[in-house]
Amino acid sequence: MAPTDWLWWPLLLLLRLTLLLTSCFVSESVSTTSFPKDLEPLNVVNSEQSYQYPGFQGLLQDNDTLRLGLDFQRMLRINHMLYIAARDHVFAVNLTTASEEFVPQLKLTWKSTDVSKCTVRGKNSDECYNYVKVLVPRNDETLFACGTNAFNPTCRNYKMTSLELVGEEVVGQARCPFESSQSNVGLFAGGDFYSATMTDFLASDAVIYRSLGEGRPVLRTVKYDSKWLRGIYFSFAFVVFSRVARVCKNDNGGSPRVLDRYWTSFLKARLNCSVPGDSFFYFDVLQSLTNVLQINQRPAVIGVFTTQANSIPGSAVCAFYMDDIEKVFNGKFKEQRTSDSSWTPVPDESVPRPR
Ligand SMILES: *[C@@H]1O[C@H](CO)[C@@H](O)[C@H](O)[C@H]1NC(C)=O
Ligand SMILES: *[C@@H]1O[C@H](CO)[C@@H](O)[C@H](O)[C@H]1NC(C)=O
Ligand SMILES: *[C@@H]1O[C@H](CO)[C@@H](O)[C@H](O)[C@H]1NC(C)=O
């Protein structure tokens, strides 16, 4: 399989795994490990100095913005345009002129229509807006956007140059979360839309989903199966690990007997961001990740990690070479015998095919 045949994601807090070693393990490792000191920054810009730079305050006359702020959700740069997805709006800033005046050249307003139904559902009424959580290029001319739309996720296509609506709305479920606070990822590859998100109102069903393509079947991860993905709504008794997951683009799903309409190529691996010592101190919660960039002329990603909520607060920046990540996906295959046991390596002869 060529590297371009697969896709992978950091699963931002989407995954949790039971771990029997909890805080006692962590505090022991800390008492014997000297915690690394923060590096000295090369340059610091304080808040007063930052006012010298052009800024965008948003819609100052808008009552919702005054109360809730702009609620930026996504940024997307295409050539000299910067698209900013926020609550009820998408802004497009022309970067050629932004160094003097940071004012959107285009503004799209997309509000939820069914706010009354939303307030009845009994959730926080600040969620009865349209938080635009997906904003990705669909092709050279079209942007694909999805919003929470007051707990009724919906997707639309817009013309890149004018932010004009193109075609019909489509259902956003499994493509966009129901709430602004939930993490999600989405991208187009080979005409298919791949998304990782919660698929339901209660945020109990996490999914990696492929849809909207022509010819390829719609595929998803197995529902409510913690071996695949473990939902974020589980309590703090579970420990969060940062993971990357990989699926193959040419995956057509299983047969009617096994994994019908499910991925057959789904694999996940742990991102190990740790500090050595007598025992390792782990930064296991992935907060953010760059796109693939070059480090030492090798494709790599850089992530910001923090510690578990029940651990000593700390953060770290770790970089991973893509070929190392690929090696892990081809390395030792582990399994979990029951849903709360630890993951252990499988003897070579028992590795399932396809993995
Ligand atoms: C914004 O709030 C002011 C003061 O509460 C009110 O008079 C005005 O009608 C509101 N504007 C809109 C568009 O709701
Ligand atoms: C951005 O602004 C420059 C200078 O005004 C203009 O020439 C260019 O066409 C604009 N780009 C887009 C994509 O509108
Ligand atoms: C994390 O990486 C370190 C350094 O390579 C290694 O010694 C340690 O065993 C790794 N931890 C896990 C859980 O794989």
TrEMBL record:
PROSITE patterns: SEMA. The keyword Membrane does not apply. It comes from the Eukaryota. The keyword Cell membrane does not apply. Residues 37-355 form the Sema domain. Keywords: Glycoprotein, Signal. SMART domains: Sema (SM00630). InterPro entries: Semap_dom, Semap_dom_sf, Semaphorin, WD40/YVTN_repeat-like_dom_sf. One of its GO terms (cellular component) is plasma membrane. GO terms for biological process: axon guidance; branching involved in blood vessel morphogenesis; neural crest cell migration; optic cup morphogenesis involved in camera-type eye development; positive regulation of cell migration; semaphorin-plexin signaling pathway. This is Sema domain, transmembrane domain (TM), and cytoplasmic domain, (semaphorin) 6Ca. Coiled coil: none annotated.
